[in-house]
Every structure is written in C-alpha cells, then in structure tokens.
Design brief:
The complex is a heterodimer of chains A (112) and B (114). By secondary structure, chain A is an all-beta fold. Chain A contains no helices and eleven strands. Chain A has strands spanning 4-5, 10-14, 19-25, 32-38, 45-51, 56-59, 62-67, 72-77, 86-93, 101-102, 106-111. Chain A is globular and about 40 Å long. Chain B is mainly β and 114 residues long. The chains are: A mainly beta (112), B mainly beta (114).
Chain lengths: 112, 114
C-alpha cells in the first residue's frame, strides 16, 4: 500500500497559468516533505521542501502548501513556463531520518 | 551538474554476468543511497550508507551487493540478475542522516537484463 500518493499521473497547463500538483500521504508520522523535478535521462533535482511546523513555503515561482489535518500537500507553480515540463515527485520522511518515501510522480506539460 | 556522478549511464547484461555500478559524489556528504526505479513505480530505497557504514537494507536480494569504500564512493555489485531487475538505478547523497535536508541525485544507470 502506497504511503505517498500522487493521484494525477499527468497534468497539462497553458504557459503563464498556474500549475497545481497534489500529493497525499497516509502516515501521520511524516513531518518533512520535499518536491523533486525530473527531466528525461536526468536524476531528480530538489525543488522545494516544507516541514510540518509550517503550512506554506515559497521560493520564487514555487510554493508548497501543507495541510496536516488532511495529510495533503500541493505544489503551485506560478506562472508556469515550458521549461517546467517534467515529472514531479513528492517525498516524505520522519524527522531525523533520510528514509524518504516517494510518490509515483505527476508528469506536467506546460503548453506554449 | 548535481555533484553526484554515476557510471555507466547505460548497461546491458546477461543473467549470468557480473558487473558493477559506480557512484561518486563531490559534495562532501557523509550519507549515500541506492534507489531503484522500475517502470511506472515510485523510487524504492535499496541501501543507505552513513560514514561508510550500511545503516539500511530494504530487503534487497543478495544478488545486489553494495560497497562503500569511503564517503565519496558507492558501488553496487550485480551478479546473476533477473529480467525483473531491469530498471533505472539512482544514487543519491546527503550531508548526513540526522537533519532534515534534501538528497542530491545522480542521473542514474539504466540497466537492462537480457
């Protein structure tokens, strides 16, 4: 049973609009979350993180929101650019551990 | 350039071959990891090393044998693999195991078992 779920395998968004990628988790012990971006033939690249003491973290065009009661996090990309087209993975862990559990990924396509 | 280099990028081998995957990190990190990514599946953690000591083995079959001679290098020795072992093998590193921090990944080795 997957502890980290990304229920949308793919998402298409028009350039300049907002992209919203969602992630749900089942383990209430998770308290540190990350988003990675992966281009074809490359390894995942760290994008942004959030710990459970916060409900929002922002870095430029990227914002991650965490709703602990719903066990849900989302990544917002505003404005979306064609170069953002990639597979996005969310990952979760328990503080003090590096045993991350990854979601299956969502493929984002930003259309010009 | 992520600071984590994996070689080879592609490997095709028969089930009776012995080969090794190599990972090198130039980030001064103390923890290194092997992951497996099969088609349409999430990344699966295989092994964790911290200061050259193995701290985690996620029930990986013995036909996969990791080796960590120092904090900068990590190997995955392969022997008598099965077709279902065909996957992308990713190496990652982080400063250590204790503090919330991201892992830095290499570009992976795409392994095909004939």
């Amino acid at each position: 049973d997957q502890q980290v779920k990304q229920n949308s395998p793919s998402l298409s968004v028009q350039e300049g609009r907002i992209s919203i990628l969602n992630c749900d988790y089942t383990n209430s012990m998770f308290d540190y979350f990350l988003w990675y971006k992966k281009y074809p033939a490359e390894g995942p690249t760290f994008l942004i993180s959030i710990s459970s003491i916060k409900d929002k973290n922002e870095d430029g065009r990227f914002t991650v929101f965490l709703n602990k009661s719903a066990k849900h996090l989302s990544l917002h990309i505003v404005p979306s650019q064609p170069g953002d087209s990639a597979v996005y993975f969310c990952a979760a862990s328990v503080t003090g551990g590096q045993n991350f559990v990854f979601g299956p990924g969502t493929r984002l396509s930003v259309l010009p | 350039e992520t600071g984590v280099t994996q070689t080879p990028r592609h490997l095709v081998m028969g089930m009776t071959n012995k080969k090794s995957l190599k990972c090198e990190q130039h980030l001064g990190h103390n923890a290194m990891y092997w992951y497996k990514q099969s088609a349409k599946k999430p990344l699966e953690l295989m092994f964790v090393y911290n200061f050259k000591e193995q701290t985690e083995n996620n029930s990986v079959p013995s036909r996969f044998s990791p080796e960590c001679p120092n904090s900068s290098h990590l190997f995955l020795h392969l022997h008598t693999l099965q077709p279902e072992d065909s996957a992308l093998y990713l190496c990652a590193s982080s400063q250590d195991l204790l503090v919330n921090q991201p892992q830095h990944f290499g570009d992976g080795t795409r392994l095909s078992i004939l």
